[in-house]
Amino acid sequence: MKKLSARRRHPLAALVVLLFALACTGGIYAAVSPGQAQADTSSSQSLAVEEGKKLFAVGCSSCHGAAGQGTSDGPSLVGVGAAAVDFQVGTGRMPAQQPGPQVEKHKVIYTQAQIDQMAAFVASLGAGPAIPTQSDWTSNEKDAVSKGGELFRTNCAQCHNFAGSGGALSNGKFAPSLRGVSAKHIYEAMLTGPQNMPTFPDSTMPQQEKAAIIAYVTSTGSSDSPNYGGLGLGRLGPVTEGLFGWIFALGALIFAAIWIAARTTKVKKS
Amino acid sequence: MSSQDNMSEEHLPEATQPHGEVAVHDDPFADPGLPPHEHRRTDIDERAARRAERQVALLFTLSMLATIGFIAAYVAIDKSKVVYIFPFGHVSALNFALGTTLGISLFCIGAGAVHWARTLMSDEEHVQERHPIEASPEVREKVFRDFRVGAAESGFGRRKLIRNTLIGAMALVPLSAVVLFRDLGPLPEKKLFNTDWAQGVRLINMNTNLPMKASDIGVGSLTFAMPEGLTESDENFQEKIAKDALMLVRIQPQDIKDKQTAQWGYEGVLAYSKICTHVGCPISLYEQQTHHVLCPCHQSTFDLSDGGRVIFGPAGHPLPQLQITVDGQGYLTAQGDFSKPVGPGFWERSA
Fold first, then answer.
1. What does DSSP assign to residue A168?
2. Which of A91, B125, B130, B348 is the most exposed place for a label (fewest CB within 10 A)?
3. Do residues B320 and B339 lie in contact, with contact meaning Cβ atoms separated by under 8 Å?
4. CA-nearest residue of chain B to A159?
5. Are residues B114 and B211 part of one domain?
6. What per-residue confidence (pLDDT) applies to B123?
């Protein structure tokens, strides 16, 4: 008990107490009314908002303000919708770890349940896009990959490269590679436009078109998709191909030239 | 030297005088001539020579086998077959087999030829003396004499009228070629100044091929548009879209820095040409927070909230903005053509 008391002024003490309190509240609620939570969606929704608000107060409010109104350190979250929260926290971009030209992908530190609670809270601040479901990002069209390829080249390839390998933008910003990004997160990114990415709302790019783009990105990005030309070299285009050609192909030719012109072994009669 | 330890004495050549010129010993700067020729092992050891011959033949045979393998692979392997090969990953089996066999067959011909030249062909040094380029004095003398006689007989220097008219005729002949250049193609006329945008032409979404309302364009979104009446099946679609391509963004009215930019848009919806004014690359690397558009070719950067002003890079003109409004049904339409020519600068373009 003495030990515990000695640590009561530790910087993380408040967090520990809060998490303990949260776990207690959640636990007690779940224990007392398990059936009711399933049946009454509106009350479970308001509970999620309540829980999300607490998580938000701890993890997000220092930059985004206690009511998500935004501060000098972070933008307002009113109207960004649940999809934005699910993308930013679900890919580990938020909570942001350090300032820089662009907030990058990191390890995800919240569970999906916590992310859903925070998303419910942010969605309650103002209407915005909801978290998409499996049926949104799955295309059942036969020619989805080829159609998606065309849409990808019109709308996305300028920044993310024709094969989704990503590319550079101005002042240290960049469009990240799309390899290994889940279909849900790609859909959410198109819907909400994280950071400097523009949005592609349903009014200008309907849901089936987004699903077709995802079909194309998944098909090109998967490790099973063959490289018909042999080495893919990151599919970055002429820069890596040229570099490879100059260093390895020309290097091999130089060694061949040295071998051709080298003196053959001579026999000296001494 | 270990290489000659196992060599029988009778295979070694007679000790001969070096066949290069021998230097004079008391002159340290004299040309020392070529060093004495040294024999290769294959020159003096018949067994080594036969081994080298077998090696060359083996390389040529390998090449033949690889060529047969190439044809066999072309016939046997299905072109849709994909296999996993270690450092390359999943590759097309046919492409991989064709590349490997053709590479081996070409490499073995080259390697065999070089090995042949290095071990078996003669490697005796030869000296080829340079010859003076100048002709002999007698020939020179005769040529100059003949020229003087010919010039005097033609009277070219004396009859000035003939000389001057000949010069005039020769100078004018190339002009006919210059005139023929005109037939290389039609003149561009005013094509570079105009696009298909005109008063009342609706903006068509390139994704859905439908006209758009201002409410469809969300803040921070990016949409590409073409003029109504243009379809991708048109024969000259590529030629037209190369000038007509339009990008639509929406910026919060308080973030628009330039008054005219805001007036030319509609409720914050701004329409800009998608063609860079430097060398005409399509630019649409739009950063929605900074409102900057970056050109991927030479990094020209334009500020869409400030009339498409160039803020970085080699572009010489701001990005042309299209003046837009809405028609009676609420669809976005152009108010006319671009006020400045789109794309890179050209000779007749005013600033």
1. E
2. B130
3. yes
4. B285
5. no
6. 84
Secondary-structure percent of chain A, ordered helix, strand, coil, rounded to 5 = 55, 5, 40
> Does pLDDT of A72 surpass 60?
yes
Contact B306, B258 (CB under 8 A): yes
- Enter the ipTM: 0.73
Domain span at residue B296?
A: 203-334
Question: Does B283 contact chain A (CB < 8 Å)?
Answer: yes
What digits encode the pLDDT tens for the residues B105-156? 999 999 999 999 999 998 888 888 888 888 999 999 999 999 999 988 988 8
Complete domains list, chain A, with CATH:
12-128 (1.10.760.10), 132-223 (1.10.760.10)
At A188-210, the pLDDT tens digits run 999 898 889 999 998 899 999 99
> Which of B102, B119, B136 finishes a domain?
B119
Distance from CA of B219 to the nearest CA of A (A): 8
Residue, of A260 and A37, whose pLDDT is higher: A260
Tell which A residues from 135 to 154 touch B, by Cβ distance under 8 Å.
151, 154
Domain total of chain B:
2
Instruction: Tell me the two tokens of residue A149.
Output: 């390829």
Burial class (CB in 10 A: 0-12, 13-18, 19+), B90: middle
CA distance A241 to A144: 29
For residue A160, the chain B residue with the least C-alpha distance is B285
pLDDT score of A24 more than 50: yes
Average pLDDT over residues B292-321: 92
Residue of chain B whose Cα is closest to the Cα of A256: B111
* Chain B residues with CB-CB distance to A158 below 8 A: 282-285, 296
B212 and B107 assigned to the same domain: no
Nearest CB among A167, A197, A230 relative to B288 is that of: A197
Least Cα distance to A204 among B219, B284, B234, B338 occurs for B219
Backbone φ and ψ for A135, nearest 5 degrees, come out as: -70, -20
Structure tokens, A49: 């908002």
Q: What is the CATH number of the domain that holds B298?
A: 2.102.10.10
